[in-house]
TrEMBL record:
<dbReference type="InterPro" id="IPR014756">
    <property type="entry name" value="Ig_E-set"/>
</dbReference>
<dbReference type="GO" id="GO:0006825">
    <property type="term" value="P:copper ion transport"/>
</dbReference>
<dbReference type="GO" id="GO:0005886">
    <property type="term" value="C:plasma membrane"/>
</dbReference>
<dbReference type="InterPro" id="IPR032694">
    <property type="entry name" value="CopC/D"/>
</dbReference>
<dbReference type="GO" id="GO:0046688">
    <property type="term" value="P:response to copper ion"/>
</dbReference>
<dbReference type="InterPro" id="IPR014755">
    <property type="entry name" value="Cu-Rt/internalin_Ig-like"/>
</dbReference>
<dbReference type="Pfam" id="PF04234">
    <property type="entry name" value="CopC"/>
</dbReference>
<feature type="compositionally biased region" description="Low complexity">
    <location>
        <begin position="157"/>
        <end position="183"/>
    </location>
</feature>
<keyword id="KW-0732">Signal</keyword>
<keyword id="KW-0472">Membrane</keyword>
<dbReference type="InterPro" id="IPR006311">
    <property type="entry name" value="TAT_signal"/>
</dbReference>
<feature type="region of interest" description="Disordered">
    <location>
        <begin position="144"/>
        <end position="183"/>
    </location>
</feature>
<keyword id="KW-1133">Transmembrane helix</keyword>
<dbReference type="GO" id="GO:0005507">
    <property type="term" value="F:copper ion binding"/>
</dbReference>
<feature type="transmembrane region" description="Helical">
    <location>
        <begin position="182"/>
        <end position="206"/>
    </location>
</feature>
<feature type="domain" description="CopC">
    <location>
        <begin position="47"/>
        <end position="141"/>
    </location>
</feature>
<dbReference type="GO" id="GO:0030313">
    <property type="term" value="C:cell envelope"/>
</dbReference>
Length: 220
C-alpha cells in the first residue's frame, strides 16, 4: 500500500479550481456587464422627456383648447408639479385649476382663451429620477379661435341723426330789388329838377333886371 495521495484527489481538486477561474472570468464579465448596465441605467432614470402634448408644440389652432395635457416618457412624480399658461398679451395666466398627474401625463384645465396670438405653456414636473424638469412649449390661436369682439369695440356707426339743426335752413333771400328803378333816381331827379328850376329863376331874374336897367341909370 503506498501512502501516495489518492491520485483521484488531484483530478478531483482541479475541476473546482477551473470552475473557480471560470467563475472569476464570468464574474468579471458580469462585472463588466453590470458596469455597462450601470452606465446605461442613468439614461433610463434621467429627467423625464416630453414625448407628446395637447396642444402640440408650435401648433396653430382654429379652436381654443380647454386643457393642456403633457405626456412624458416616464411617470411623473408627486410634488411640485406646475403648468402655467400665458397669453399673447401677458397679464393673467389661463390655467383654471390644479395640475392633475396620472401616470406619465400631467394636465391642467384652462379658462377661456380670449386673445389670438402665441401662448406659452411653461411646465415644471417631478421627473422619474426625482429631479425637477422645467421647460416650455408654445401654440398659437388664430382669430377664428377667439370670440368676436364685443359691439362696443366695433367701429362707431354712422354719425347719429342729431345734425338736423345744422342742416342749412332756408336761407333768407336777399331783399328784393326795388321794383321801381326810378325810385333809385328819385333823389337825384329831385336835385336835378331843383337845380333846373333855380337856374331857370336866375335866368329870368337876370333878364328882368337888364330890361328895366336904362331908366335906373339915366344919369349919364
Ligand atoms: Cu435628473
Amino acid at each position: 500500500m503506498t501512502p501516495a495521495a489518492p491520485p483521484a484527489s488531484a483530478p478531483a481538486a482541479a475541476p473546482p479550481r477551473r470552475a473557480a477561474r471560470r467563475l472569476a472570468v464570468l464574474a468579471s464579465a458580469l462585472g463588466a456587464a453590470l458596469a455597462l448596465g450601470v452606465g446605461a441605467a442613468p439614461a433610463a432614470l434621467a429627467h423625464n422627456t416630453l414625448i407628446d402634448s395637447s396642444p402640440k408644440n408650435e401648433a396653430e389652432l382654429d379652436t381654443a383648447p380647454e386643457e393642456v395635457v403633457l405626456t412624458f416618457n416616464a411617470d411623473v412624480g408627486e410634488g411640485a408639479n406646475a403648468i402655467v399658461v400665458t397669453g399673447p398679451e401677458g397679464g393673467d395666466t389661463y390655467e383654471d385649476g390644479e395640475v392633475a398627474i396620472e401616470g406619465a401625463e400631467a394636465s391642467v384645465p384652462l379658462r377661456e382663451l380670449d386673445a389670438a396670438g402665441e401662448y406659452t405653456v411653461a411646465y415644471r414636473i417631478v421627473s422619474a429620477d426625482g429631479h425637477i424638469l422645467e421647460d416650455d412649449l408654445t401654440f398659437t390661436l388664430t382669430e377664428e379661435a377667439v370670440p368676436e369682439p364685443s359691439p362696443s369695440e366695433e367701429d362707431p356707426a354712422a354719425a347719429p341723426d342729431g345734425e338736423s339743426a345744422d342742416s342749412p335752413a332756408e336761407e333768407p333771400s336777399a331783399s328784393p330789388e326795388p321794383a321801381d328803378p326810378l325810385a333809385a333816381y328819385g333823389p337825384v331827379g329831385a336835385v336835378v329838377g331843383g337845380i333846373a328850376i333855380v337856374a331857370l329863376i336866375v335866368i329870368l331874374l337876370v333878364r328882368l333886371r337888364r330890361r328895366p336897367g336904362p331908366p335906373d341909370q339915366g344919369g349919364r
